[in-house]
Design a protein that fits this description.
It is a single chain. This protein is an alpha/beta fold. It has 2 domains: about 170 residues, Rossmann fold, CATH 3.40.50.1970; about 190 residues, Dehydroquinate synthase-like - alpha domain (Dehydroquinate synthase-like, alpha domain), CATH 1.20.1090.10. The chain is about 45% helix and about 20% strand. It is built from 12 helices and 11 strands. A 7-stranded mixed beta sheet has the order 1-2-9-6-5-3-4, sandwiched between helices. Strands 7-8 form a two-stranded antiparallel ribbon. It has a two-stranded antiparallel ribbon with strand order 10-11. The longest helix is centred in the middle third of the chain and has 21 residues. The chain binds nicotinamide-adenine-dinucleotide and glycine. The site of glycine has 6 residues, from loops.
C-alpha cells in the first residue's frame, strides 16, 4: 500500500492507494463519533457495501442508496441524503462515507459540507476517474440544468481510500473515461508521465494492476501537489480544468449522462490542444500525439455533430472561469505546462469550435 498526504495544514488528510487495501486501514481513526452514514448507489451498493459494513461493526451505521447516473447529480438527491440523516437523527459528530464514483462522491461531499454546517466525511472512490481526480481536493457539488457543477462548495474529506480492486467490475467505457483524466495530468503538468502513458496505454486499458496502481499514484500525487498550492482555485488549480470548458459545454448540451464526463473532457482536451496549436504555442506534432493517445484509450476526439459554434459559446459563457464576461481557457504552452488565459484570437477559437469531424482526419 502507498500513501500520500494532501497538505492543507490542520485539514491535511491521507490518500491510501493499493490493491485490496480496504481491510488494512483502521477506519476508526478517521471516524469522529459513533454515527456513520454510507452513501452509495444502486449499482455499487450490491457489489461493495457488505464488505464495508463488516469493517464498521463498532459503529451505528445507516445507509442511503441513490439512483445511478449523472442525471441524478442534483439538489433533489442531496436532499434525500439530508432526509436520511435527519430521520436517523445523525448529530454533528456523524461521518458520511461516499462509496462510489464521482457522482456519489461529489454529492456526499456537498451534503457533508451543508449538514449542520459541516460534518466529517470519507471518500472511498470506486471508479478510476474518482480515484485520480474527484475524490481528492474537496470540490463537491451538483449540476444545474443551466450548467455543470454550478452549485457546490470546497469541502475536504478527512481520508481517501483508492483501492484498485474496485476496477475489476468497472465497465470498459468507464475505464476509458477515467483514463482521460489521467492523460490530463500528462498534458498539463508532467511531460514524462505523458510519455509513460503513451508507452503503457494498452496495459491501462487491459486493467493491468501494476500499471493502474502507478497511474493512480502519480495522478493523485500531482493533484495533491496542485491542491496544496491552490486549494480554492485562484491560480494553478485551474489547470486541472484543461479541456473542461469545452467538455462541460458538451455534457450540458447533450444532456447529463449522455456523454460520460471523461469522454467530454477527452474531446475538450483535443480542442484545447488544437487551439494551442493554432495559436502557435505548441508543435503540430503534439496534436497528432494527443489524437493517437486519446484514440488508443478509445475516447472520442470530435465534438457532437449537432453542436454549433453558437451552442459552444453560449454554454462556455457560464463556465466558472469566466471573468468580467470573458471566456478564459486552459491551454498548453508546451507539453507538461498549461496556462489559463483570455488572451487568444477569437477567430482561432471559432475555427477550433467549428472543426467537428475534421479532428478525426488529422
Ligand atoms: P459515476 O460516478 O457516474 O460512475 C460511473 C458509472 O460507474 C456509474 O454508473 C457507477 O454506478 C458505476 N460504477 C462506479 N464504480 C463502479 C465499480 N467499481 N464497478 C462497476 N460499476 C461502477 O462517474 P465518474 O466517472 O466516477 O465521475 C464523474 C463525475 O465526477 C462527474 O459528475 C464529474 O463532474 C465529477 N468530477 C468531479 C471532480 C471533482 O474535483 N470533484 C473532478 C472530476 C470529475
Ligand atoms: N477536477 C478539477 C479540480 O479538482 O480542480
Amino acid at each position: 500500500m502507498h500513501s500520500l498526504t494532501v497538505e492543507l495544514g490542520e485539514r491535511s488528510y491521507p490518500i491510501f492507494i493499493g490493491n485490496n487495501i480496504l481491510s488494512d486501514i483502521n477506519l476508526s481513526e478517521y471516524i469522529v463519533g459513533r454515527q456513520v452514514l454510507i452513501v452509495s448507489n444502486e449499482t455499487i451498493a450490491p457489489l461493495y457495501m457488505a464488505k464495508l459494513d463488516m469493517l464498521l461493526t463498532d459503529f451505528c451505521v445507516d445507509h442511503i442508496i441513490l439512483p445511478d447516473g449523472e442525471q441524478y447529480k442534483n439538489l433533489e438527491q442531496v436532499n434525500t441524503i439530508f432526509d436520511q440523516l435527519l430521520t436517523c437523527k445523525h448529530n454533528r459528530t456523524t461521518t458520511l462515507i461516499a462509496l462510489g464514483g464521482g457522482v456519489v462522491g461529489d454529492m456526499t461531499g456537498f451534503a457533508a459540507a451543508c449538514y449542520q454546517r459541516g460534518v466529517n466525511f470519507i471518500q472511498i472512490p470506486t471508479t478510476i476517474l474518482a480515484q485520480v481526480d474527484s475524490s481528492v481536493g474537496g470540490k463537491t457539488g451538483v449540476n444545474h440544468p443551466l450548467g455543470k457543477n454550478m452549485i457546490g462548495a470546497f469541502y475536504q474529506p478527512n481520508l481517501v481510500i483508492a483501492d484498485i480492486e474496485y476496477f475489476q467490475s468497472l465497465p470498459q467505457r468507464q475505464v476509458a473515461a477515467g483514463i482521460a483524466e489521467i492523460i490530463k495530468y500528462g498534458f498539463i503538468y508532467d511531460a514524462d508521465f505523458f510519455v509513460w502513458l503513451e508507452q503503457n496505454i494498452s496495459a491501462l486499458m487491459a486493467k493491468d494492476a501494476q500499471a493502474l496502481s502507478y497511474a493512480v499514484y502519480r495522478s493523485c500525487q500531482i493533484k495533491a501537489e496542485v491542491v496544496a498550492k491552490d486549494e480554492k482555485e485562484m491560480g494553478i488549480r485551474a489547470w486541472l480544468n484543461f479541456g473542461h470548458t469545452f467538455g462541460h459545454a458538451i455534457e450540458t448540451h447533450q444532456g447529463y449522462g449522455s456523454w460520460l464526463h471523461g469522454e467530454a473532457v477527452a474531446t475538450g482536451m483535443m480542442m484545447a490542444v488544437d487551439l494551442s496549436c493554432r495559436l502557435g504555442w505548441i508543435e503540430p506534432a503534439l496534436l497528432q500525439r494527443a489524437k493517437d493517445l486519446l484514440e488508443a484509450a478509445q475516447l472520442p476526439i470530435c465534438a457532437p455533430e449537432d453542436m454549433t459554434v453558437d451552442d459552444f459559446l453560449t454554454l462556455m459563457s457560464v463556465d466558472k472561469k469566466v471573468l468580467d464576461g470573458s471566456i478564459r481557457l486552459v491551454l498548453l504552452k508546451e507539453l507538461g505546462q498549461a496556462t489559463v488565459t483570455a488572451d487568444f484570437d477569437r477567430a482561432l477559437l471559432h475555427e477550433t469550435l467549428s472543426l467537428g469531424k475534421q479532428l478525426a482526419q488529422l
